[in-house]
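Weekly sync, protein design subgroup
Attendees: M.S., D.O., the rotation student, P.L. (late)

Item 1: inverse folding check
M.S. brought a backbone from last month's batch and wanted to see whether the design step gives back something sensible before we order anything. D.O. pointed out we never logged the input encoding, so this time it goes straight into the notes. Structure tokens as presented (215 positions):
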């Protein structure tokens, strides 16, 4: 009887153990966005739960020069936008002459040995901006969300809108939902070089990941 009970417990625990080590675990962002920057985020959790978000997604460059923060202008032909920035504990504040101050709150702990600006910052509790060590801004502004489940044994997932299939290919997640065209996703924590290799695009335009040369 004890052997039967132990076997049953092991069988019950097996799916969770498989899910906890599945390489699909984590958060992925789509590589093809609309021209306005809208795209999907998918998160696979170890408990076989799945979260899908439509979000505003941006990956672009930034550079700091002392207390000056530079990022792309509003249009590709515009010069970089420049703002002053400073820290007050876990608050990061930007000041631009034409805009009111922007205050962000650090999410988590500072990265050891990295510039103070590196890390994730909260805009309003849901929206986040991340500044990476390799000079990228990553913006994640969720618009809507739906929850579902995924099955690592069949490489399928289910959300209220229907069912889909997924596979991992060359480091990317390839998703097909309700028989639609396949979409590619890259890990949310991908480096600049990985993002370049994946070829993220906004409509028919590639993302701008490298700052102009400083003078």
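Designed sequence read out in the meeting:
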């Amino acid at each position: 009887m004890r052997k039967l009970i132990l076997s049953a417990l092991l069988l019950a625990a097996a799916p969770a153990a498989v899910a906890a080590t599945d390489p699909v675990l984590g958060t992925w962002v789509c590589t093809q966005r609309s021209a306005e920057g809208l795209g999907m985020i998918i998160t696979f959790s170890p408990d076989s739960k799945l979260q899908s978000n439509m979000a505003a997604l941006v990956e672009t460059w930034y550079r700091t020069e002392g207390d000056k923060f530079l990022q792309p202008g509003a249009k590709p032909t515009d010069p970089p936008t420049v703002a002053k920035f400073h820290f007050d504990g876990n608050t990061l504040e930007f000041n631009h002459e034409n805009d009111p101050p922007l205050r962000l709150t650090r999410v988590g702990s500072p990265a050891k040995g990295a510039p103070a600006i590196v890390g994730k910052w909260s805009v309003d509790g849901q929206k986040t901006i991340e500044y990476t060590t390799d000079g990228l801004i990553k913006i994640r502004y969720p618009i809507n969300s739906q929850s579902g489940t995924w099955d690592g044994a069949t490489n399928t997932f289910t959300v209220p809108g229907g069912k889909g299939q997924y596979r991992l290919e060359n480091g990317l997640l390839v998703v097909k939902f309700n028989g639609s065209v396949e979409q590619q996703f890259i890990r949310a924590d991908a480096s600049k070089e990985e993002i370049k290799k994946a070829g993220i695009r906004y409509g028919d335009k590639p993302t701008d990941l490298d700052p102009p040369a400083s003078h």
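Discussion: Residues 1-17 have pLDDT under 50 and may be disordered. Helices lie at 2-20, 192-198.
Action: P.L. to compare against the previous round before Friday.
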